[in-house]
Amino acid sequence: MSAPVKVAVVGASGYSGAELLRLLLRHPNVELVAVTSRSLAGKALSKEFPRFRGVGVADSLTFTAPDAAALKAAGAEIAFLAVPHGVAAEYAKPLLELGLKVIDLSADFRLRSPALYEEFYGHAHPAPELLDEAVYALPEVRAEQIKTARLIACPGCYPTSILLPLIPLLKAGLLADTPLAVASMSGASGAGRKESIPLLFCEVQNSVRSYSVPVHRHLSEIGQELALAAGREVKLSFVPHLMPTHSGICTTTFAQLKTGVTLEQISAALHSAYDKAPFVRLLGVNQSPDTKNVTGTNFVDIGWSYDARAGQLILMSTEDNIGKGASGQAVQNMNLICGFEATAGLLNI
Fold first, then answer.
1. 186 is in which domain, residue-wise?
2. For residue 13, is pLDDT > 90?
3. Of 17, 127, 129, 258, which shows the fewest CB atoms inside 10 Å?
4. Where is the active site (predicted)?
5. Per annotation, catalytic residue among 154, 157, 250, 338
């Protein structure tokens, strides 16, 4: 058995960072050598996250202030960045210069265009010179590119749930050129671990509400990837909703089929794309996925149907927003980079 890969997590105090720690502490091929958080420096992992007591190095490894040279000195070969957009690029540049591979969970390297980034994120891109080499790392779509990349841009949570059902259909030319309509619901953890009145328990409990209408930041990467799959611009309306759960995403997409396209062709395209994808579970026609079956896992469940009265294809998907939508997918990408089994450390149910 080869030596385990040594990894570090930058920004390990948030929800995605904590999920990364949970997965990496139990991964059979990983040695966790460093975790960073300015606010938690000097504190043991298991003191901040008691659920990790007695697991691996959680009792002995302490948070440190983020410093690229210190991570290199600790022996890290791969660094996961679980920090906000605009901040990740500041760490990515020196880490890459020191020879580490970087897996970024933020939005900093998802877009190919610096102008598009500035339009959607409100400031100039901090490292535009790295955008061309960054790989938008949807493992089911770009596995070969991911294997040789040194800078990985993990897709966002909503985009993952939207892109996986749509990309095979657009590549096969099965959908009409009419605009798509997408409605997604996410648990409150998607907003991050922060003090915010709209995210207090009493504000979220017994409440479902839309937000960021009509333009959510994730529209930028969704549009980019759909256009690449279709070979043309793909217009869509996207309405995200906050639901009173910790985690989980439920997405429903409405699209029109090209004239003469059948539901059997839709099924065939999805099966051709994903029958060998270990984390995509195709439920079949008229089967509705449920978030309770994917939370805490790296699976995405997909169902589909056709509404003959309205002439609409209905695509349904569920995932865990901090699992397949963030940390689980990041570990899945690490497995590809390192040549590990695709499912290593990720078969949690």
1. 158-321
2. no
3. 129
4. 157
5. 157
